[in-house]
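To whoever is on call:

I kicked off a structure prediction for a single chain this morning and the downstream step that reads the tokens threw a length-mismatch warning. I double-checked the sequence; it's 656 residues and nothing unusual in it as far as I can see. Pasting both halves so you can look.
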Amino acid sequence: MITAAPEESGNRFELLVQSVTDYAIYMLSPNGIIVSWNAGARRFKGYDPDEIIGQHFSRFYTPEDQAAGIPARALETAEHEGRFEAEGWRVRKDGTRFWASVVIDPIRNASGVLIGFAKVTRDLTERRMAEEALRVSEERFRLLVQSVTDYAIYMLDPVGTVTSWNAGAQRFKGYTADEIMGENFSRFYSDEDRLAGVPVRALETAAREGRFEAEGWRIRKDGSRFWASVVIDPIRNMMGDLVGFAKVTRDLTERREAQLALEEAREAIFQSQKMDAIGKLTGGVAHDFNNLLAVIVGSLDLAKQRLATGGDVSRYIQNAMTAAERGATLTQRMLAFARKQELRLGRVDCVALVRNMAALLETTLGSTVTIETRFPLSLSCAHADPAQLELALVNLAVNARDAMPDGGRLIIEGVELDVLAQQRPDLASGRYVRLSVIDEGDGMDEATLSRAREPFFTTKGVGKGTGLGLSMVHGFAEQCGGSLIISSEPGQGTTVSMWLPVAPAESDLAEDIPAPVEYLYPSDDQPLVILAVDDDDLVLTNTAGMLEELGHTVFQAGSAADALRMLEQGHIDLVITDYAMPHMTGAQLADALSETRPELPVVIITGFAELPQHATKRLRLDKPFKQADLARIVSVARQGVSADRSSGVSGLPTGL
């Protein structure tokens, strides 16, 4: 084995020390005189060996440290304790300062006699600057958080223990930092929430999903409640381990109370507007219905007088019927305004429909209005209810006539257009038929135009209309899947356009619309035993009279309960019931009969446009109806009557 000579080993050690540039490594004599100097010392202290060897090492210290005797104490500590270690400011040759980490070890000979010191210094200025910047940043953040008073901002450990507390938390939760630090945050929750495990779920959600956010009642120190907005975010270390949670809470009690007050005010305004609307509706509709009732009552009164003398009453009966039919039309307008009328949508040839209305329009509008139509050679069918579309066009034409008191030209125009959703937010993308009614009347200013489709709004005199015309047309167009557009300028006339979707091809329509039910009628005209049910005596008497005139045996019940009692006491072939009755509706009566008498057919008479979903499967007769309508629905209902029942009239027990 070859070993190096002591002199060679020493030379190698000296070469090693001299090669280090990141550390200042040098030796001191027992009294602190520099006796060696390496490249690292030269690099960040700035002295060459011949400038510094033989000088006292205290020159590297600041004047303040020198005056305090720190260099001497450092050597004494190293000598007596075997090591001195510290950090502090040191001074370079050019007078600049750097932050140094210093280690001083004593050097003793084989006899233990102190012969000097080994001093190792490292420049940590950059690290200290980074740490100082971090400290300043943390201090600023701490001051920021502590200064916030509108938010409670504090930290929780992984199990929910409060580990920090700011002024905002103290302000509206009532606890000082000393009172709440170390307590679990669940004390801010109500007893109900704690029992339901809300605090635990909040932390679990934040840890699992990265955030928890909610609003709810929280409890102050004094036991009072406040409405809080809460956000909890998890805090993780560099390894991704959960170390706690950041919780931000805001007191929204005042805002919530303001919102509730605003909602109450809006509700009060809505109620006021609703009552005002009802008042307008009542005034307009009452005027129209009073006119109709005047005709009906007057005609029937005259008919009664003529009957007493044997005179002809047909004229007065016809007048009463016409007025009643107009009343039914007014009701349909009101349902259309509410978007509640029952539409029978199908393919409508708009050109043919307008052509067939020519005579009606000429009679309705009078001789002062000239009607002109403009249609292309080919126009697709619209998807609409033909009867309601005709009514809508008549409404628009009458409005146009009223806008031209001295007469003028009225144009009915049709065109087919493609629409993209981004062009018309009120319409779905697709192809539409645009039917326009154009007049040369006075037109409308901007204020009137903005309210034209508003329910009950009318520019006509008091009692001249209900203001439902345009509302009805607007509701009808929307129910068809379209829209209504009105354009007008004072003195330039008005254009009202109904946009109706193009009807699907007949083959597609056949897939969507179920085939009509084929009813099989019995060959005989055998009379039936019918139970009529209605809570209105006048309507009940009228319905029973119509049925008796058709040759049927009729029993009457004034409520669904009476009807069920009567059905238990005898045989009935058919039940005809009103829908709107107190305690039990006609639909509920039909459901009850389905349980006990599933074979018994039931017809529901209603003045409502919409019935509950389960009731739509029943036979239905809309009010008002004529005897012919009643006869048709009874014929359809006959299919539910047992074909093998015994001949003759089946009746209820005597005395029922």
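Update from on-call: the warning came from a stale cache, not from the record. Cleared it. Sanity check on the structure: The two ends are 135 Å apart (CA to CA).
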